[in-house]
């Protein structure tokens, strides 16, 4: 698929991307079918596309050949483009009269530094627009069969980043360890053992269900479930690799019944649906 089918009853097109304008576009967690109509339209109007590793190959495959692609992501060690350099590059491209699309995994404003990027554009008087995307919490949980706020189990859902600062996680642990709440941790792969241990230390039962999802919504989706006591070890045994999303709370238990994505044969079964996890009981 390289463009929208003509027979879909789509809303009339919004104003096209203007010369010298930047669109900050959320692409969702990877499945190209989770792109918004607006995201796809803008991607196809761009002269220059800036992207990073969180934009899935399947989404990159939707781009036409006409646009120039510039990789601005973090690559192994060296070729990291600093945030300031990305911001400046966008200003330069827009000033040169290009129609620029900056693709962001998930939603640009949820742990995506989208705010910083458009602050710079705003400061330089560059015209811009923001297109929201399905954030990983919503998309990955849906495809993993975990209803984040099922009312029998949770009355709130907290999104946090587990990005390590100076080797420790700098989080408000008492607020995270509240019962009746679902916790979703972005960028928590490295800190998983610490996250689980701290939550137990601050009062959550060790038997609290927890899941870690690699490459959610994509053909390579893998889900490992367990409890706060077992998840870190199970994730290590399964040799998961980032990007992963961690979900903690009683809602994780529902996956046993609701794991539709694997059942439909769209992804390998990480933990088979319907198989109770002995450590959960
Ligand atoms: N703006 C993005 C988040 C960027 S931070 C959003 O709204 O989703 C990057 C983190 O997002 C990753 O470390 C991981 O925790 C999570 N993430 C993004 N896509 C994911 C996916 N397909 N599967 C699992 N986790 C994902």
Structure report:
With about 280 residues, this protein is α/β, with parallel strands linked by helices. Helix content is about 25%, strand content about 20%. The chain contains ten helices and ten strands. It has helices spanning about 35-45, 55-60, 85-95, 115-125, 135-145, 175, 190-200, 230-235, 255-260, 260-265; strands spanning about 20-25, 50, 70, 100-105, 125-130, 155-160, 180-185, 210-215, 220-225, 245-250. Strands 3-2-4-1-5 form a five-stranded parallel sheet, sandwiched between helices. Strand 2, helix 2 and strand 3 (about 70) form a beta-alpha-beta unit. Helix 3 (about 85-95) packs across helix 4 (about 115-125). The longest helix has 13 residues, at about 85-95. The chain is globular. It starts with 20 loop residues before the first strand and ends in an 18-residue tail after the last helix. S-adenosyl-L-homocysteine (SAH) binds near residues 30, 110, 135, 215 and 243. S-adenosyl-L-homocysteine binds next to helix 5 and strand 10.
Whole-Å distance between the termini?
Answer: 45 Å
- List the bound ligands: S-adenosyl-L-homocysteine
Tally of alpha and pi helices: 10
Query: Radius of gyration, rounded?
Result: 20 Å
Low-confidence stretches: 271-281
Tell me the number of strands: 10
What is the share of helical residues?
25-40%
Give the overall form: globular
């Amino acid at each position: 698929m390289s463009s929208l089918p003509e027979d879909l009853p789509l809303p009339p097109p919004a104003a096209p991307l203007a010369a010298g304008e930047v669109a900050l576009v959320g692409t969702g967690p990877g499945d190209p079918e989770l792109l918004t109509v607006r995201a796809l339209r803008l991607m196809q109007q761009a002269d220059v596309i800036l992207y990073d590793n969180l934009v899935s190959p399947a989404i990159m495959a939707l781009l036409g050949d006409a646009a120039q692609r510039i990789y601005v992501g973090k690559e192994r060690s060296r070729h990291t483009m600093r945030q300031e350099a990305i911001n400046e590059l966008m200003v330069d491209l827009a000033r040169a009269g290009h129609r620029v699309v900056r693709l962001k995994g998930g939603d640009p404003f949820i742990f995506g530094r989208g705010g910083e990027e458009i602050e710079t554009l705003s400061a330089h008087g560059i015209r811009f627009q923001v297109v929201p995307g399905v954030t990983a919490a919503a998309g990955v949980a849906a495809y993993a069969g975990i209803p984040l706020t099922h009312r029998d189990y949770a009355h709130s859902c907290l999104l946090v980043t587990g990005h390590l600062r100076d080797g420790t996680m700098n989080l408000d642990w008492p607020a995270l360890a509240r019962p009746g709440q679902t916790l979703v941790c972005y960028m928590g792969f490295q800190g998983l053992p610490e996250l689980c241990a701290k939550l137990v230390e601050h009062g959550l039962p060790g038997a609290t269900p927890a899941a870690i999802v690699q490459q959610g919504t994509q053909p390579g989706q893998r889900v490992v479930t367990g409890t706060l006591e077992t998840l870190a070890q199970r994730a290590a045994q399964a040799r998961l690799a980032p990007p992963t999303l961690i979900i903690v709370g009683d809602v994780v238990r529902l996956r046993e019944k609701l794991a539709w994505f694997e059942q439909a044969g769209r992804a390998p079964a990480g933990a088979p649906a319907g198989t109770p996890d002995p450590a959960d009981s």
